[in-house]
Write a structure and sequence with these properties.
Radius of gyration: 20 Å
Largest sheet: none
Number of domains: 2
Shape: flat
Order of helices and strands: HHHH
Helix content: over 70%
Strand content: under 5%
Structural class: mainly alpha
């Protein structure tokens, strides 16, 4: 392995404190938006809006505070595999829920 390849393999990305402050303020704004949305009657869309905002906040935390944005492709693949597994589990749970004979027994 060449010296340059060895150096690139262990190089860390430096994130400025300004980025952390901006992401922190975005998370605070999204939290305020979640609280504000909870007081608005949207019917069936209340949990959809709340989950949508929560997903955006989770993505910001994973990308910036957990440094996945600046990580290796293997780390990104691992995170993607975890998200894919989560969607499979949610899909199987919903498939079970929607195919039950509620009240027919």
């Amino acid at each position: 392995m060449s010296e340059q390849a060895h150096h690139d393999e262990h190089e860390h990305h430096i994130v400025s404190p300004k980025v952390y402050v901006v992401i922190f303020l975005a998370l605070l704004a999204l939290t305020s938006l979640t609280v504000g949305a909870s007081f608005i009657e949207m019917g069936i869309f209340n949990p959809i809006v709340a989950l949508g905002i929560a997903v955006i906040k989770a993505v910001l935390v994973v990308l910036f505070f957990m440094h996945v944005k600046y990580s290796t492709k293997l780390t990104k693949l691992t995170v993607g595999a975890g998200v894919f597994t989560f969607f499979i589990l949610i899909g199987m749970t919903l498939a079970d829920y929607f195919t039950r004979a509620w009240g027919r027994w």
